[in-house]
Structure formats: C-alpha cells, structure tokens
Design goal:
By secondary structure, this protein is α/β, with parallel strands linked by helices. It has helices at residues 11-25, 34-38, 42-49, 60-68, 86-93, 102-110, 134-145, 169-179, 191-196, 201-204, 319-324, 347-353, 358-364, and strands at residues 5-10, 28-32, 54-57, 75-77, 96-99, 117-122, 150-156, 186-189, 207-208, 235-247, 252-253, 259-260, 265-270, 295-298, 301-306, 314-317, 333-340, 343-345, 371-374. The chain contains 13 helices and 19 strands.
C-alpha cells in the first residue's frame, strides 16, 4: 500500500472564501495564484478558484495553464513582462499586465500590435520592492497614456503593513497624492487590507487582490484567526501513526536527543517529515516558559510533537490521548494541519509554533505527497 500520508485540497472552501471576500469588500476579486496557487495546484483548485472575477499570477506558464483550463476572464501578470517577446504572448492570451519600471514602458512602446493592452501602473508607496517612486508616477502615467499600444490604465500599489499596527494610512496618503485627478480604476488591497481596512471606499477600490485569505489563512494571526475572519481551511495534511513507543524517565527522542522524557509516557511515530514539506525547525524539545510546542491532532485529540522532525517521521506525545482513554496505535489518524473527520488544526497555529507563516507551509508541500481535491 502507499505510504499513509495525504494532502487534501477543498475547492468548496476556496469558493466560500472568495465569495466571502467579495461580500466583505464590495469589490471585484483577483484570486492570487502565485506559486501554483499557494501550493494547492492550479488545476486541482480551479473549480473553486473560478468563483473569482480574475486571476493574478506571476508568469506566463501559469497564465497559459488557466487559459487551457477554459478561463476566459481577466488574468493579470503581477510582475509584468520580463522581456519584449513576452508581450506577444500577452497579446495572444489576452492578458493584463503590471508596469513597474521604465524598461517595461520601453518594451510596450516598441511592441507592434493591433490590440491595445490593459496595464496596471504600479506605485512604490513605501514597500520599496517594485513600482515607480511617487515623484515619477505621473510622468510614467503620461508616457503610457500616450502609447497606442495601451488601452486602460489601472492604478496599483502594495501595502507593507496592512496586517499590523502601523497600518496603511501612510501609504494610502502617498497613493492618493500620486493618482489625484488621474482617470482609471484602482487596486490596492491585499488580504490584510481587504479584511481589516477595505470598508473604506478608497481602500476597497475597484479590485481587491487577496492571496493567503483565499486559501483559508489569516493574514494577521495570532491577532485574529481565520475563523474570526469567516475563512475556511482549504488545505489539509493528514497521515497515520506508524508505531508506538513507551518511554521511561530519562529516555530521549530523535536526532540530537533534544527531548528527554520527564515521566513515563507513550509517543506515536507519525508518517510525515521534512521531505514531505513539514518544517524541520518545528519545535519539539522539552518545553520552557518561552518555548512553544508544535500542535498536532491524533485520533481527534490535540497533542504536540516531541523531538526533532526527521526526513520521513515525526514523534508525537500520546499522553493527552492516554489520559482521555482514547485508543491509539498503528493506523490511527493524524492531522498535521487543516480539517478532517479526524479533527481540525488551523495551519496558522502550526506555522506560528514553527516561527514561520502559513504561506511557507502551503508552498513547501512536497511533490511526493499524494494530493486529492474534494468539494
């Protein structure tokens, strides 16, 4: 039989999240499909993703894939084109694309086409990654607006602190000054801004661009959970117990002996490891006042990992199950994150314990893990 590990993509949950984000913001929704739909797989997740008004992604391969799936709606290249010949495929596939630098304007000016293109002009309002500086934004707009190769121009920026206490007011002020009096639609809100700030019309704009929220994770965890925002988990990683070991006081677990049993108790050996994409640095040492434990659900009961994560296995404490009289042994169901009949565990909690974010756990899912889609 196959190794007992499985990833499940819930398309109904994706659909719910998109519809919820649309209702909450009152704007059209770009579903961000970067990194193969945040590790979910574009083809697997498509039936849920098509609830969106458009797809925002990074490269032409992803754009070709959504067109091959039958999507005829808007597709936006978030980083724009990388070389002049990319514009030929942009024209053929009917893509919209971001313009964030002078070189991209020059490519457009030299591009021969009978089909004017829809562009998103990006302002660097403080993120300091891509986009025109505020004092150069209006001249970039004028250059684009003068080109026969350009149709509508949408104003765009990206927030650095929409999910935290600094907020977006400083960037919104920069954006409003830069675009004042210029025609065109607006798209400024990522997941954090869509959930926390998009009740304001200027922040809502015409399009919101949620990424992680589409996939059922909270952009501002632990301040707010995904459930607080009305989001459903879309990716579940489940597996089984392979074996059970009985520890005595002083026994250690795993490489480096980072966990030492203080009392007699049992542990379960689980069929999941860092070669499956689970974070090797997830803490499993003896707890201290400031050291978190990595949660896991075994046979419907929440417990935690012990010892280091290995390539193919993780050890988990069975004490909470034994205390409740829950039978556990080889074949018992384990939920590493997500939701299933065997229990639920928000991916944000696992990521937080491991000192990372849910984005990384989703994108790190290894190719060797069998994946199915439901819903």
């Amino acid at each position: 039989m196959p190794r007992p590990i499985l990833a499940t993509v819930d398309r109904a949950a994706i659909r719910h999240n998109i519809q919820h984000l649309r209702e909450r913001s009152g704007a059209r929704v770009w579903a961000v499909l970067k990194a193969n739909a945040y590790g979910h797989g574009i083809e697997r997740a498509y039936e849920g993703l098509r609830a969106a008004d458009g797809f925002a992604l990074l490269d032409l391969d992803e754009a070709q894939r959504v067109r091959d799936l039958g999507w005829r709606g808007p597709v936006l290249l978030l980083e724009g084109v990388f070389e002049p010949r990319d514009l030929e495929l942009v024209s053929r596939l009917g893509l919209w694309h971001t313009v964030h630098c002078d070189e991209q304007i020059e490519m457009l000016a030299a591009h021969k086409t009978d089909q004017p293109q829809r562009v998103f002009l990006k302002l660097n309002s403080g993120m300091n990654r891509l986009g025109f500086a505020p004092h150069r934004y209006r001249s970039a707009y004028a250059r684009l607006d003068a080109l026969a190769q350009v149709d509508d121009i949408t104003h765009m920026t990206h927030f650095s602190d929409s999910d935290g206490p600094r907020g977006i007011a400083h960037q919104m002020a920069t954006f409003e000054t830069a675009v004042e009096g210029l025609p065109g639609e607006r798209s400024v809100s990522n997941s954090g801004a869509t959930l926390r700030h998009a009740q304001a019309p200027a922040v809502r704009g015409d399009w919101v661009r949620p990424g992680i929220a589409v996939y059922g994770s909270s952009p501002d965890f632990p301040e707010h959970s995904a459930a607080h925002w009305g989001l459903l988990p879309t990716l579940t990683l489940s597996c089984e117990v392979l074996a059970v070991q009985s520890l005595q006081p002083g026994d250690t677990v795993g490489y480096g002996s980072t966990y030492t049993a203080q009392v007699a108790h049992r542990i379960g050996i689980v069929a999941c490891g860092y070669a499956d994409g689970y974070p090797r640095h997830a803490p499993g040492a003896n707890p201290t006042a400031d050291a978190p434990r990595t949660p896991v659900v075994v046979a419907g009961v929440r417990t935690h990992t012990v010892g280091r994560v290995s390539m193919d296995m993780i050890c988990v404490d069975l004490s909470p199950l034994d205390a409740q009289g829950v039978a556990v042994g080889p074949g018992s169901a384990v939920v590493m994150f997500g939701a299933s009949d065997a229990g639920s565990l928000p991916i944000d909690e696992v990521a937080h314990a491991a000192g990372t974010v849910s984005y990384e756990l989703m994108c790190a899912l290894a190719a060797r893990v069998p994946t199915v889609a439901v819903g």
